[in-house]
């Protein structure tokens, strides 16, 4: 029965992907403007955007600008979204009818590029300074240039900082203009900001390291640890005391059944799911930080746009994430979103014309469309000079985020064929640690064992496919 259920699930997933790809499949002309473009002799290309909502609309407006700026190429923009993007991409490339350009995050890019599914941009960017190594933040370049080749043009990148509710600080007797600067202080503040009702249930959580996003890999980096050794090409978490310390620290935010006295901010493990489930939708005014159910969180620069939209009356601040004493200030740049050309794209040269336009400064001296796109959605540009443009850093809150990537050594996720698997395992084993099912030492060892075996299998499969 289990096998039958598995086959049925697989079949339904495949059918769903085929149906989705059918509707996303590139066609010569589907609208009056596209038919006009074909009649004018222009090449119609398809752009798959992993974004949706206002982020898709911002890019679509710039694509319209490109379409009106010349008479050789017409770009059809399709909001594919992130869910099932991997399956749709694989299906379209295997069918020799993918989009001509694909917006993709760097974790997925690495997995597919190592399999030879994208076109190298080496020759294309040879005479384009704004798409060469010196233009990009060093950690971003690692994400798009690997295996000896450039696979994509980086568009947006992110980082994380501490965000706090100033009204909650005032109610707790804390200085609303002074955020915690050390891990000791973040624990002290978390204790004062955690509010319980008469039954002991938490009504306001001071801080949870994994809320709203599990960033276990990030916390290991911020503790000064090394998860992955590039020289060895292997995970080495188990041998790093800083990684173990980061897991121990996250574990301290749950109740220790063997301790006589519990930390005031510690949550009972059996209540984590219920608390997380009842704290509200992320993209809404009910977001737990917006509604006051959590006083401090680690969040990204997009909150500079989201908070005025969903919680316009919120009084909040932003500061670098606290680190253990003795650890040099570090930055964390997990991934980036980039534009890549599938290996079976039908119009690669036309796609390159669009990329050249999108990433180059406009002829009249205005910033590149890529920079405008980052500004419209409040993400950080991948190229240093653009991130330091006055319009990005004049907002003091946004500048704090930019500074983390431009003034500190920055660690990204390791560029491997199993980047997403590594993230999944660090998060899964962190959960086991905080539920006190295993020790931090055991978790680090299991992460190493699982990921290194997966790495060996992935490289073996890739090497065999090249023969």
Structural features, described:
By secondary structure, the protein is of the alpha+beta class. The protein has two domains: 216 residues, D-Maltodextrin-Binding Protein, domain 2 (3-Layer(aba) Sandwich), CATH 3.40.190; 223 residues, D-Maltodextrin-Binding Protein, domain 2, CATH 3.40.190. Helix content is 45%, strand content 13%. It contains 19 helices and 17 strands. The strands form six sheets. Strands 2-1-3-15-6-16 form a six-stranded mixed beta sheet, sandwiched between helices. Helix 9 packs across helix 10, helix 10 crosses helix 19 and helix 18 runs antiparallel to helix 19. The longest helix is centred in the last third of the chain and has 27 residues. The two termini are 38 Å apart. The N terminus is likely disordered.
Which key features would you list for this structure?
single chain, 467 residues, alpha+beta, D-Maltodextrin-Binding Protein, domain 2, 2 domains, 3-stranded antiparallel beta sheet, 13% strand, disordered N terminus
Summarize, please:
The chain has 19 helices and 17 strands.
- Looking at the structure, the CATH topology of the largest domain is D-Maltodextrin-Binding Protein, domain 2
Please give the CATH architecture of the largest domain: 3-Layer(aba) Sandwich
Q: DSSP helix count?
A: 19
Rounded radius of gyration (Å): 24 Å
Q: Let me know the number of strands.
A: 17
| Tertiary shape | globular
Structural class category: alpha+beta
What is the typical, i.e. mean, pLDDT?
Answer: 91
Poorly predicted regions are 1-26
Classify the helix fraction into a percent range. Answer: 40-55%
Proportion of strand residues: 5-15%
Termini gap: 38 Å
Strand order of the largest sheet: 2-1-3-15-6-16
Give the name of the CATH superfamily of the largest domain. Answer: Periplasmic binding protein-like II
Main sheet characteristics: 6 strands, mixed
Oligomerization? single chain
CATH class bucket of the largest domain: Alpha Beta
Instruction: Give the total of domains.
Output: 2
């Amino acid at each position: 029965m289990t096998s039958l259920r598995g086959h049925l699930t697989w079949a339904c997933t495949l059918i769903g992907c085929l149906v989705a790809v059918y509707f996303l499949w590139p066609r010569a002309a589907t609208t009056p403007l596209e038919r006009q473009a074909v009649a004018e002799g222009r090449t119609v290309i398809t752009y798959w955007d992993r974004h949706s909502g206002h982020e898709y609309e911002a890019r679509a407006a710039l694509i319209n600008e490109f379409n009106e700026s010349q008479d050789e190429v017409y770009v059809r923009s399709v909001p594919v979204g992130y869910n099932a993007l991997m399956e749709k991409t694989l299906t379209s490339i295997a069918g020799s009818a993918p989009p001509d350009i694909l917006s993709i995050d760097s974790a997925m890019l690495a997995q597919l590029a190592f399999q030879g599914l994208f076109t190298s941009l080496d020759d294309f960017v040879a005479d384009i300074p704004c798409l060469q190594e010196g233009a990009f933040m060093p950690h971003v370049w690692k994400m798009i240039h690997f295996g000896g080749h450039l696979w994509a043009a980086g568009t947006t990148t992110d980082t994380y900082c501490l965000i706090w509710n100033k009204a909650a600080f005032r109610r707790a007797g804390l200085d609303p203009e002074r955020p915690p600067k050390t891990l000791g202080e973040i624990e002290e503040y978390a204790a004062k900001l955690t509010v319980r009702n008469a039954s002991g249930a938490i009504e306001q959580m001071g801080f949870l390291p994994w809320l709203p996003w599990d960033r276990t890999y990030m916390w290991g980096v911020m503790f000064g640890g090394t998860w992955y050794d590039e020289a060895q090409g292997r995970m080495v978490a188990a041998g790093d005391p800083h990684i173990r310390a980061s897991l121990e620290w996250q574990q301290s935010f749950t109740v220790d059944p063997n301790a006589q006295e519990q930390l005031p901010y510690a949550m009972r493990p059996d209540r984590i799911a219920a608390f997380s489930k009842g704290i509200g939708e992320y993209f809404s005014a009910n977001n737990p930080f917006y509604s006051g159910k959590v006083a401090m969180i680690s969040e990204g620069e997009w909150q500079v746009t989201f908070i005025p939209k969903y919680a316009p009356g919120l009084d909040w601040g932003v500061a670098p994430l606290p680190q253990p004493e003795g650890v040099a200030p570090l930055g964390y740049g997990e991934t980036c979103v980039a534009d890549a050309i599938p290996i079976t794209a039908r119009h690669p040269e036309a796609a390159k014309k669009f990329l050249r336009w999108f990433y180059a400064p406009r002829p009249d001296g205005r910033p590149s469309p890529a920079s405008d796109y980052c500004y419209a959605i409040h993400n950080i540009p991948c190229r240093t000079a653009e991130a330091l443009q006055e319009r990005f850093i004049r907002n003091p809150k946004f500048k704090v985020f930019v500074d983390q990537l431009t003034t500190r050594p920055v660690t990204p996720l390791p560029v491997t064929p199993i980047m997403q698997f590594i993230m999944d395992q660090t998060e899964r084993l962190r959960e086991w640690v905080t539920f006190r099912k295993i020790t931090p030492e055991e978790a680090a060892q299991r992460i190493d064992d699982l990921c290194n075996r997966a790495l060996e299998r992935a490289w073996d499969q890739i090497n065999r496919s090249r023969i």
